[in-house]
């Protein structure tokens, strides 16, 4: 009995000691990272066996290689993203997320278009991310945030993904603190996450993300996508083209673009598959328990015990796979497997003996190593060829047989199947008396097709020991040369293509803006050393948009190519030319300090470029606008570009001028314009805007029947700002829609306080119709204030009829249905057409002040006024003459039969309280 107890106690102690040794070994592997490596391998295997469909609620708009090839430029112009946003919003996309960097400014026009499109859509989110600071001497990270003008109407979302120790992406973020404030990630936003915007979650790579709906960017822009593809869907816009390098190594799929990883994260959250790691302790304890039981049992035979441990390992994976498919849990079984592995080794060693076991392991290891090395050699990504001292090929990998187009390389002389240069280099290494450091080299092989093949290679030398069995056990060494090479033709061509696109415009072949800036910097340095002056000219094809609208984009590209061809043929010797945007070209050349060469060059450009073009049978004429600046070699290139661009912008805005030279006053005016544009957005909040009213009177009895509402801005520092200055700014940036709505509500509210129920006239801008919803704005203002629609008179200028894209007639008919009336304002200022009057529901004509500035004695003025009065009577309309300042003018107009008037004679524009007081005095 005592003997049995002693044996049992010893068995338990041995089992505990063995278990402790196994635990210690597993702990060492855990600290070395081997456990994590095995766990990730097992998780990836389980993901590969699990096939889950995507929800179908997410669509990826892909900036793929075809899009870059067809669009031909990177970065893509912001106007393309604006068009894309409008199209997606029109298709009914639920959410729009851009995985695109908008942290730097593009040209102002494109940025404004994109900002307006984002505001119109109302459901756009833009990428925010942190990245290592790349500038020399700078440490830490920088935050890339979209421009503030974009974030005014969009949500920031984090698009970073954490990369694990194996350089792959296993997790995504719920959010990340940016500048101290937590921002939700794109995946969490699209997946409907409602918790805190912090922490990370595991991605479910069992979801078949490769079956997610993906649409090429050019197909969306071209309108070839199936209707309703985006309706009610969440859309991610991102890049998958390899040259853009926005791809990450991931499990299962190898590599995925960042936008697809965000989509996978959204699918994981939406399907309740945000993975967490668990179960490691249970696996370890279970493995230890089984090991302990096997040590305690009296069962003989190590094979049976090892088989039990193997079955336990299989059971671990079956259970882990079942848990993973039914719940978002990644079971960490690697520690348990290592426990089982060391347990099996312990059992075998205990029963076979340590030395015998080591010999067995060495034999198995050698065989496995030989087999593995053979597989590695044959399946190597690189082509590997081994040559003996006689120049004969002794071994060749599968990639080598494919690269050199021969399945029978082994045993052949290298000079008969390999390029001559490769053979000479390899034999030179073999003949070298001493080992030399391998140097990678590149070989360019011309092909029969006229193309080329680029091979990157390196030659290394080694020795093989040969043992010959004889009496003296003869040992001999043999030299071998290993040629390792790969075909890098596509990589070189892609790199050259990207290098070309980085400096040249792919359509015109001229320098692009980046390449031109480099050339401009070089010429500036040269001019500074030589004491010379430079002239930078920018010219724009002012009517390119109309040409594209009428003939198509292909004609626009062909026209740009033709313009570039003429620049290269006729003016390339005199200046360096560039296509810095779609419709703007630029040139720089050395000139004298007086600048005469600049004007001479502009005349030469007119002679060469303005001559008509014939494209596919269509005769095309171009209209050019010029801006230029003369400068010495001390002016920075970016300032030179900016100033000449500002001069061009001024020329494009002025219909009477085609050439503008930069002057400091122009910069001052632009600076004031930028200041006013910024301040105008704050004017309503600061209560700097007010309404003034000018009376409309009956000339016969001087009674007031209405008032024209006029918007005024009194800035707290700059003082009163003229409407002629801030209204055009508001129209250009679209803010006139908000200003118009504010003015309409304020004018109606104040008009209701007057003692008399007067007509209220309010001016309408074309932008309120094209970018806003004028009918809704008017209807809401009438409902909010309670102002009678019959007293509202909307003044429409003749200039609105020039833009044929405006559906002005239907808009006016809807407003007329509400009860509003209309006046044709500024009649006679240059756009008048009798065809407008019967076509639109006008009830009044306002004759411009230019006809009454004198004493109305000129026969021409009298004839015009009488004609307008006769015309108005024929159509049952009334006439109001603007600009009446003297009693003689009023009397003459009344004599001619004009019933109504407006001008300083009856009252200057005044505030509501003063206007109301005047009405009380008149009563």
TrEMBL record:
Transmembrane parts of this sequence: 12-32, 274-295, 302-323, 329-349
Keywords linked to the UniProt accession: Coiled coil, Membrane, Transmembrane, Transmembrane helix
Gene3D superfamilies per record: 3.30.70.270, EAL domain, PAS domain
CDD domains: EAL (cd01948), GGDEF (cd01949)
Domain GGDEF: 532-664
Domain EAL: 673-923
Coiled-coil boundaries: 652-679
PROSITE patterns reported in the protein's UniProt record: EAL, GGDEF
InterPro entries for this protein: Biofilm_reg_signaling (IPR052155), CHASE2 (IPR007890), EAL_dom (IPR001633), EAL_sf (IPR035919), GGDEF_dom (IPR000160), Nucleotide_cyclase (IPR029787), PAS (IPR000014), PAS-like_dom_sf (IPR035965)
NCBIfam families: sensory_box (TIGR00229)
PANTHER family linked: BIOFILM ARCHITECTURE MAINTENANCE PROTEIN MBAA, DIGUANYLATE CYCLASE DGCP
Listed name of the protein: EAL domain-containing protein
Annotated source species: Roseibium salinum
